[in-house]
Specification:
Layout lengths: L11 H13 L9 H17 L6 H20 L5 E2 L4 E5 L5 E5 L16 H5 L1 E2 L7 H11 L14 E2 L2 E2 H8 L13
Parallel strand pairs: 1-4
Antiparallel strand pairs: 2-3, 5-6
């Protein structure tokens, strides 16, 4: 997914994804998500911050971009499901319904960030990493010769226009008035 205005070839995500796809011998596509990301995730974040609330953009991005815009695009190309790198599991309950479970690696569980997915989105999702520990995934990637096997893990919220969220917030929110601490200083 392309979320930045920087050229796709200059971004580490698409470059790494293309290299991994090459090793695995599978097609690689880059979907331009800049406008839906701006209109959905960034606008939501700006609204929340302007109202004095802390947004959770990861939840909105997963629900509306990854399992909305991206899933719709994948289906239009003939795919029935999409796989993500989230550390969660998906199971069938005793009534035949699809339910999400925590990933086996408790230190990497990401079920919270997917709690808002509806049953159709969850049914169309594959979570191959949820059954493994992060260390096992890295070892398997090394054995397969994947170029991203030892990349440092990113803890960034998300990037836009090559900058962190703060720059976009400054551009998107009008901050009139003085900022005061709880003690009135």
């Amino acid at each position: 997914m392309r979320l930045s205005v920087a050229p796709a070839a200059a971004l580490p995500g698409p470059t790494q994804a293309r290299a991994v796809a090459g090793v695995l011998g599978i097609p690689h596509y880059v979907l331009d998500c800049r406008q839906p990301f701006h209109d959905t995730v960034l606008q939501y974040s700006w609204r929340e911050y302007s109202q004095g609330r802390t947004p959770n953009p990861c939840i909105i991005c997963n629900e509306r971009i990854k399992f909305g815009f991206l899933l719709d695009a994948a289906k239009s190309m003939g795919a029935a499901k999409i796989a993500t790198g989230h550390y969660v599991r998906k199971e069938t309950d005793r009534n035949g319904g699809v339910v999400m479970r925590r990933g086996l690696d408790q230190g990497k569980d990401q079920s919270y960030f997917l709690f808002s997915l509806n049953k159709q989105q969850l049914a169309a999702a594959l979570f191959p990493l949820g059954l493994f520990a992060k260390t096992d995934v890295r070892q398997k990637a090394r054995l397969l010769g994947l170029p991203n096997a030892d990349l440092e893990e990113s803890q960034m919220l998300f990037l836009t226009d090559g900058e962190v969220l703060c720059r976009d917030l400054e551009a998107g929110i009008s901050c009139a008035g003085a900022t005061r601490r709880r003690r009135g200083q």
